[in-house]
Amino acid sequence: MQTVEQTLRALLTEGTQDGTLRPGSKLPTERELVERLAAPRSAIRRALEILERDGVVIRHVGRGTFLTEVAVQQVDGAPADTSPAEIMQVRLLLEPQVAMLAARVATQADLDRIGECLAAGGASDDFEGFESWDARLHRAIAKAAHNGLLMNMFDVLNTARALPVWGSLKRRTSSPERRRCYHEEHTAVVDALRDRDPDAAGAAMRAHLQHVSDNLLGRG
């Protein structure tokens, strides 16, 4: 059985891998962690003290607990000098194939989760909200492929999305119009997954990522 500390570390690792947590991200409050982990407040506090001692988090009285660079470095992920161009090259190689496999083997529960991420992303009217659900959507599609080795490769790729250079470039190139366009492209991918059409899913994912790449790298 996992200790509270191990459970909390796993929660932070997953958030780092799926792009929802980055260096400087604020963690949930102690009260929220008590509810989420179903653990006593004293155990949550001890776990946070250990994480702070290890440099994974930093706590500011009256402000909260924040993730540090160490947390990202502890995930065996992308090299720190990975460029946005390199990230997009690998995404274009990997994710269309992932979508094709997911179209073949996804369960209804997988499709339901993917649909939830799609809907939440479409309802997000700010950069942070959309980016969070964008990362969760792509990871949910990868999980729907039901291949542990592929999932590990995807998570290494996804750690690159926590690198500062990626986040700053995404923010600079984001706009409400582009987010609406990306949502439409996400919808095309999800429709193909629901239709169990691997070729259409792969093509829709490739078209979406090519568009993202063009916008990020100044070709759009």
From TrEMBL:
PROSITE patterns per UniProt: HTH_GNTR
Sequence intervals crossing the membrane: none
Keywords: DNA-binding, Transcription, Transcription regulation
Domain called HTH gntR-type: residue spans: 2-70
Keyword Transcription regulation part of the UniProt annotation: yes
Pfam families the UniProt entry points to: FCD, GntR
Name used for this protein in its record: FadR/GntR family transcriptional regulator
Organism field: Pseudonocardia benzenivorans
